[in-house]
């Protein structure tokens, strides 16, 4: 491995955000999944949870839309909502879903500096009632148009760039990244300890 490559990987690992995860529930189109992965990589989100309770597991992601991002992410796949949420609750203090229901918090009022996972539903029905019942709350992306929804990959990108903005302002991309989480990434990426 060249020094330049090692420096690039170290720089990326140092900005990974262990307290921010993304969950995709029954997202049909593998290109949407891949586009989400690419956005996650761009803002330092390492952990993507794929929950498929109503559709088969994807055999592969849309390579053109991910530009290889999947190989640099930790992709956790689940076929059971309860098992998925047990894992989420063990890693994150809060889990919020995107949902246009009463009581949903506008995205810009959501504290995305906290240890949190965000759930995005499928292209047709959004987040299921089952998952909303397991979550800590719902959030919405404020909109003023007639159609009150966005493509799943766009909704995720808007949301995680708000997390990026909040976390950048809080200095979370400048702090030392020598946690066990980051050390494990170094090992997985061939950088040793």
Main attributes?
193 residues, alpha/beta, Alpha/beta knot, 7 helices
What does this structure look like?
The protein is α/β, with parallel strands linked by helices and 193 residues long. It has a single domain (3-188), classed as SPOUT methyltransferase, trefoil knot domain (Alpha/beta knot). Helices cover 38% and strands 17% of the residues. The protein contains seven helices and seven strands, in the order H-E-H-E-H-E-H-E-E-E-H-E-H-H. Strand 2, helix 3 and strand 3 (74-78) form a beta-alpha-beta unit. The chain is globular.
Question: What is this structure's SSE topology?
Answer:
Elements: H1 3-14, E1 20-25, H2 30-43, E2 47-51, H3 63-66, E3 74-78, H4 81-91, E4 94-98, E5 105-106, E6 116-120, H5 129-134, E7 137-140, H6 152-169, H7 180-188
Short summary of the structure?
By secondary structure, the protein is an alpha/beta fold. It has seven helices and seven strands.
- Summed up, the domain count is 1
CATH superfamily assignment? SPOUT methyltransferase, trefoil knot domain
**How far from one another are the termini?**
15 Å
Order of helices and strands: HEHEHEHEEEHEHH
Category from helices, strands and their pairing: alpha/beta
Low-confidence stretches: none
The CATH architecture would be 3-Layer(aba) Sandwich
Q: Provide mean pLDDT, rounded.
A: 90
Helix content: 25-40%
Strand order, largest beta sheet: 3-2-1-6-4-7-5
- CATH classification class: Alpha Beta
Approximate shape: globular
Tell me the total number of β-strands.
7
The number of helical runs is 7
